[in-house]
Specification:
disordered C terminus; Nucleotidyltransferase, domain 5; 6 strands; six-stranded mixed sheet; alpha/beta; 375 residues; 55% helix; single chain
Length: 375
């Protein structure tokens, strides 16, 4: 146990050492690839990278010890609670999609004599307790839960609206419940999971920020249209990119293209093929096999949960690759290792740019503008 702990410290210390030697541009790239927050200067960038690296190192250790690691990513919502679960085995190159679902919390977890989830603490307590039990008892327990952080206000309001407040409370209490369940059941291997509050901006940046959109929008929409002028920070544009990206990934998974970032269980393969093959405008909703009680028939919640889960797998992959580089000389400084470290970050950005290019030619239609849908 002491040996493994020293190895972890050495790995993180080595990452820190080479971050200190790298320039700000390299740190910005590295933060993007491992899902760390961007810093305003080198010092904060390094701190953010190390914070994320510590979590990823723990995931890496679990993968090494158990020959597999799993993550369940949650996009919180009262009527549109979506989640996706991926696993990644040590002897496999790609993560495996295990679960992808969306549920209405008040329909599934409110007591029978109550029909609306209000801000009453009793409603919050009942729903989130039942939800926590569902995630940790009825479903296979993952190595890590990642809960998408919710913004405090809608895009257009200066005040906190009640539906948004409900989702903020849901996020906070669910995080607390999952953390505290570990504390109250110490020593039980079944509950030996981690919990992360996952910034949606980092996930969106990883999948969308390098996507070239200007040419695609100007070609596919009239010159003076709202669509042709959308910028990357537009919620409508990023939502459209993410939905189309998930469709790309699913098409690759069933063999329609050579773009393979995930593998599928036989059940998921059969289900997806039945909706994707021969249907260019398939819906993620249909692919996930959702029924009438699963909330609004829209794809953005499912796309967010899917991409959040897969992002953590890709961030872990990038961390493992960086870790292997910085430990080449047992974590000691070496000029050649620094050159490899810098070159890796440079090539990784080029590869990500090339990958994201593939989504731009699909932006022939955009998701319709709509108000925030928290209820």
């Amino acid at each position: 146990m002491v040996q493994r702990s020293l190895l972890q410290r050495n790995a993180l210390e080595a990452v820190d050492l080479y971050c200190r030697k790298a320039n700000a541009r390299t740190l910005k790239r590295l933060a993007l690839f491992i899902g760390a927050a961007q810093g305003t200067n080198k010092s904060t960038s390094r701190e953010n990278i190390l914070f994320q690296a510590a979590f990823l190192e723990e995931l890496r250790k679990r993968k090494e010890q158990n020959n597999v690691v799993s993550v369940l990513a949650i996009d919180a919502g009262i009527a549109n609670f979506a989640f996706a679960r991926f696993s990644w085995a040590s002897d496999q190159k790609l993560p495996l999609l295990l679960d992808w679902n969306k549920i209405q919390l008040k329909e599934k977890f409110m007591p029978e004599n109550r029909y609306t989830m209000t801000l009453n603490p009793r409603d919050t307590s009942d729903v989130i307790y039942n939800l926590t039990e569902y995630l940790t008892t009825e479903l296979p327990v993952p190595d890590a839960f990642t809960i998408e952080r919710q913004r405090a206000r809608s895009m257009s309001s200066k005040t906190i609206l009640e539906p948004i407040l409900k989702v903020n409370i849901l996020e906070q209490v669910l995080f607390s419940n999952l953390e505290n369940k570990i504390r109250f059941n110490q020593g039980l291997p079944k509950l030996n999971y981690m919990v992360a509050s996952s910034d949606p901006q980092r996930m969106t940046s990883y999948w969308c920020s390098l996507t070239p959109t200007r040419k695609a929008l100007s070609q596919n929409f009239p010159e003076d249209s709202e669509e042709s002028k959308l910028k990357m920070n537009s919620n409508r544009l990023s939502k459209s990119i993410k939905i189309n990206l998930v469709k790309r990934l699913l098409e690759g998974a069933v063999g329609l293209t050579d773009e393979k970032l995930i593998t599928l269980t036989p059940d998921w393969s059969q289900r997806l093929k039945s909706h994707i093959l021969g249907n260019r405008k398939f819906k993620l909703w249909d692919c996930a096999g959702l029924g009438p009680k699963a909330g609004a028939r829209k794809d953005d919640d499912l796309a967010d949960a899917f991409l959040h889960g897969l992002a953590w797998m890709e961030w872990l992959r990038a961390y493992e690759e960086v870790r292997n580089i910085v430990l080449k000389e047992k974590g000691k400084y070496d000029q050649n290792v620094l050159a490899d470290f810098n070159e890796y970050c440079k090539k990784k950005k080029v590869a990500l740019e090339k990958f994201q290019e593939g989504t731009s030619n699909r932006l022939t239609e955009l998701e319709p503008p709509e108000e925030d849908d928290y209820e």
